[in-house]
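Could someone model NAP with this protein?
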Amino acid sequence: MNTSQQIVLAARPHGHVNSADFRHEEAPVPPVEEGGIEIESLLISIDPAIRGWLDDRPSYLPPVAIGAPIRALGIARVTASRNDEFPPGTIVRGFVGWQQRQVIATPAGTWQKLDPAQDVPLEHHLGILGMTGLTAWAGVNDILQPQLGHTVLVSGASGAVGTVAVQLAKHAGAYVIGIAGGAEKCAMVTSLGADAVIDRKDRDWPTQLKRAAPNGIDRLFENAGGPMFESAINLLNDHARIALCGLIDGYNLEQRPAGPSNFGMLLTKRVLTQGFIVLDYMDRANEVEAYLANLIASGQMRAVQTVLSSLDQLPDAFIESFTNGHPGKLIVDLQGKTASERSMTESAANQK
Ligand SMILES: NC(=O)c1ccc[n+]([C@@H]2O[C@H](COP(=O)([O-])OP(=O)(O)OC[C@H]3O[C@@H](n4cnc5c(N)ncnc54)[C@H](OP(=O)(O)O)[C@@H]3O)[C@@H](O)[C@H]2O)c1
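Reply:
Sure, complex below.
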């Protein structure tokens, strides 16, 4: 019988997510019916948003059911088809979940066909040329619209979205401050062009932040929330803008924080604050992908990513991303490409 390895939700996490919340299973893969396809996952994206989907509370997507594979974006290849629009070999992007193989009864609409260029690593289509790049672009280019001379602060700057946001803000001519955790990731953010980087793991971070922004902050790309968000609000200039992208600091708290204690400053400083969800920008996805691909090809932007190589690494990598996150976009490659094969294709794509 055709079977698939998968990782399912064993129990709803209470507070910090841990390995007991997940279970590894082997599940049967049913035959393909008329109009359907069978796909095998190639790449699976690890995103902080998954933590929200594990909770049973109202959100922009329904909660993952107990016993169901964990919802996750990914890239897959069609292995069997009874649908002329998706012949075997077609590469598709969509919610593959934490599983090797599955049958999709009606692929049209929910699965996007990809025609990836040979010299661009496929994983870029989950990161900088996928939702990650689109998220950063929406926050920086559509909402914040930084100008030459503006001071832009990016929290979560070493992560998937942050590494792109830092580079886009620099590209717009702003003075860019990043926040990252630990010396190594701070150095990586500096290498992307940030003018100053605050180490959030350093006790002295409030002083560092004030020093880094002597003229205040004009634009804030907020990925984290928590105490650093409050300090950043204190430093905002009148008529500043905030692109509220994520609040990762609270994702593992049983009781989500009510909000920053200095919320009233958003009023007195007349701050334009825009929460956003990348799914609302899907109609701009092709245009933004072409824009970012061009910046990479001309050497003006770099893709930062960490690629792991087995389904079993998913739970721990996801859990660790809230404490000691990997740099850039975190992806699991189920084809198990070696690091040297990968770095050869990457450097070719980054040098284009
Ligand atoms: N609105 C949308 O549509 C949308 C779309 C995608 C992502 N998001 C959100 O955007 C944020 C970044 O996503 P991502 O994909 O870039 O995630 P990511 O790759 O996991 O990066 C997040 C980074 O945040 C830092 N971090 C972790 N815990 C933190 C804490 N408690 N306080 C401050 N920083 C912390 C970590 O870096 P360091 O350890 O180096 O600090 C981590 O690498 C998340 O909040 C995510 O939910 C929103």
